[in-house]
Amino acid sequence: MNQKRTFFTILILMALSGILIAVLRHMATGTPFLPGQEQSVWLVEARVDFEADGGPVTANLSLPDAQMPGFEVFEEQAASPGYGFAIMTDGGNRRAEWTKREAEGPQSLYYSAQLVETGPDSTGSADAPGEGEQHLDYWEAAQELAAKEVLDRAREKSSSPESLTRELVKLLNSPGSQNTALLSSSTSNQAELLMRLLDRAEIATRFVMGLYLEDARRRQTLTPMVEIYTGEKWLLVNPETGEFGVPPNLLLWHRGGVSVLDVTGGNKSRVHFSMIRQTVPALQLAQVKNSESVFSRLGVQRLPIEEQSMFKLLLLLPLGAAVVVFMRVIIGLKTSGTFMPVLIALAFLQTSLVAGLISFVLVVAAGLALRSYLSRLNLLLVSRIATLIVLVIFMISAFSIIGYQLGFSTGMTITFFPMIIIAWTIERMSILWEEDGPSEVVRQGGGSLLVAVFAYLLMMTPIFVHLTFNFPELNLVLLASILAMGQYTGYKLSELRRFRAMDDL
Amino acid sequence: MGNAWVSPKRLKEFGMLGMNCRNVDFINRYNARKLFPLVDNKLKTKLLAQEYDVPTPALKFVVREQHEISHIERELADLETFALKPAKGSGGKGILVITGRKGDQFVRSSGALMDIADIRRHMSNILAGLYSLGGSADVAIIEDLIAFDDCFAGYSYEGVPDIRIIVFRGYPVMAMLRLATAASDGKANLHQGAVGVGLALDSGRCLNAAQFGRPIKLHPDTGRPLRDIKIEGWRDILLLASQCFDMTGLGYIGTDIVLDKKLGPQLLELNARPGLAIQITNGRGLLPRLRHIENMTVNRRFRTEHRVDYVMRQFAELDPAAQSAE
User: Fold this and answer.
1) Of chain A residues 360-379, which have a CB less than 8 A from chain B?
2) Residue A227 backbone phi and psi in degrees, to 5
């Protein structure tokens, strides 16, 4: 009895300390308890590849400004083993420089930045055009003539630098005109062409490289853009479409005439970008940015973005486990495989519920049909399970392909199911079928699915996602409740039915 | 009659032992984990029983490796009848009972015929772990077939009637007789539809009977009234059950005992996690008896006979029928 009291005291202390730490974290970092307004954070990674010649190497990459229209850099790192690294500001441009005394063979340098969306910025920078904005270039006489004609036609239909630019883009995009064809042949880049034309119209321009941010993209390149000076401010123009202003998902990476990437001591240099999007509460972000408190250091948010998304799922698992304990100990549901339902629920998180349920039942049913044939082959257990795993993978591929052909993109998400668990489930259900009949299969399978659905519903509730991820210490409360249920010696709900005959005696 | 549910309060009044309570208060507390293999592995149980002189069907031989199966017919040549079992099987799974020969073929208890290839495949499945918990590798046991006592004639359909006795710290606390039915496919497993007949601890006579968790009066296949059942030599059976505690050291076990025509009660197997349905067949809960034993200032050195006599006195049924019989 005394032992029991100690045990429950420890449990209560555990739960209380979980809550206490959460409250302290809330006060120290300001992380809200409720999932509130969330803000997008982008992790953008630039990767520079080149072949080093064997001598000293200097690689120089243009970086986005700390303040840009629509975004703000709040953290940046460079990872490149053996290289010296520095961020320099050179005439208003920020540039990253990697240096090494000797390097040979293929080299990869990484720069990553975390960017916050600050909302659309319509004002634009107002600094007047300086000296460096004049671009020297040479065209042949015929091209000069064509340029003049195009400009004249555009000028007729326009009244301001903006409208002139718009008309120019329209003309450049209209097919069949000899003038524009001649001009286009002079340069492969429409941004450059537009700038040359605007130079001749005595409108100041700047060359800009932008990066379109789309979630989970890899190997992206920069898109050339043009900024024009309207007399009051700089305005971004898309040289392909003639649209003005900075699109919400465009990050201005590089500005000005200097090249984006310079590599000395190497060749075949390239830069490409990958990016991931995350949402975090605005308030917390503000705190993390300038807080060095223990709590923000010990938060999961300090991890690299890829690991964070993994932790987001991992920290939800205790909730699923608690649901399983509750369903088995208090309710008395029979499930096939103790924690199989949690894994199924995790798969549902990726596939969405209905699609997940349908595909799971389909795969298991088809697997049972195939397994009934396998049992006639008289195989050893290990090879039978291995055969099932291969068959499950075949089935899942087939369902994905058929689903895709029929136009269900959800067919693809079926691959999120844990294959080996499914193979074991099929094996166990098949033995159950042979020994206890189909009704027991339906009962245990149904029980498993019910627990999985219940766990899924909890695990997708925004408040739980928010709390487990931002306050991992609250899992102590869950742990305490799991331990408490482990000491529960009362009746299960199912036993109230199982022993119902006692009332009749 | 026919309530869909029973209130937890009523269950408490009956002293019903629930699954959670059994696991936490009895199995976890009285059954040391390291002793589990003694009962989960029938071969170990059997060797231990022989060591302690507890009667059990004689072990003929053990098949441990796949290559032994190829020349198994030589070993089986002089066995007219035998039982083939997986050592780690549970719930009667994978047990093959051969009651005779017909030419080259083997006659199963159900009357079906098997040839040597079928036996080989069955052995191979056993060794591969088809019937063992978690699919771990197993061995096959071949043992003497029990010649069933005729006292249960008409009470069991095809299969083997056995007596399950729960033994707590060496004291038998509850007993039932399990009778195979057509629904249970000749198996004496309650959840597969076998009839459970609760037995009075003092006399071995029928208290109550249930199938699928509902009370019944007659055997569903043979129609014989179940309340006429009375087991002869009841004290010897309790003694055998009680000995299993001394043998294994497990505090809370279920003992499965069968009656042989010539050899008397034989220990068939032990279970470290005995089920709860025995309470329905007895019409009473285990908990008062378990708590009684638990709270006794027991002398652990109490001899088997003392323990059995104690429970026969202490848990005697105040059933008028039982009293008039005495």
Assistant:
1) 378
2) -110, 135
